[in-house]
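Whiteboard transcription, Tuesday session. T.W. wrote the structure tokens on the left side:
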């Protein structure tokens, strides 16, 4: 269960990071409301997950999920560069997340 909570926390981190783009500097009410809700939910779920997962592992996985997911959404939604080198680096981060799960 703690790994599920951590995964959901990571998904919410992606949601709030992408949501920042839509808030337009926190000037739009609903995107801002949803973004802040995702921020709170992400941190709450992370807090619950670290009750049973070592803090360093949980934080690294949480930020890794957020970083990879946000980069992928940046490519898909906002036309961010998808160079082979960038994709390879994202794959390395994903491998690190998987490795931490396997040994944690």
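and on the right, the sequence the group agreed on:
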């Amino acid at each position: 269960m703690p790994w599920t909570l951590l995964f959901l926390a990571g998904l919410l981190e992606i949601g709030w990071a992408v949501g920042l783009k839509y808030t337009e500097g926190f000037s739009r009410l609903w995107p801002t409301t949803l973004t802040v809700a995702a921020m709170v939910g992400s941190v709450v779920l992370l807090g619950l997950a670290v009750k049973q997962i070592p803090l360093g592992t949980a934080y690294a996985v949480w930020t890794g999920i957020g970083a990879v997911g946000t980069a992928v959404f940046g490519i898909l939604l906002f036309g961010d560069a998808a160079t082979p080198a960038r994709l390879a680096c994202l794959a390395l981060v994903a491998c690190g997340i998987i490795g931490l799960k396997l040994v944690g």
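Someone added at the bottom: The chain has four helices and no strands.
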